[in-house]
Specification:
mainly alpha; single chain
Length: 65
């Protein structure tokens, strides 16, 4: 009897599975938003605003002209 009880899986707290589900949902929504924003940048040509990286035209901020 003691062996059967020891080999059974331990019950998990309900809050832990809810936390993981919420984390997975937040991650999926974040990835979806990233893909959509990447598509917008690609279609509008916004990614070509700074030709060099990590600096933009040799400075931290692009020229304001």
């Amino acid at each position: 009897m003691a062996i059967a009880q020891a080999s059974s899986p331990m019950p998990q707290a309900r809050g832990v599975s809810t936390w993981y589900r919420n984390l997975a949902l937040l991650t999926a929504l974040s990835v979806f938003a990233l893909v959509v924003l990447g598509g917008v940048v690609r279609v509008t040509g916004s990614g070509l605003g700074c030709p060099d990286w990590p600096l933009c035209y040799g400075g931290i901020l692009p020229p304001l002209q």
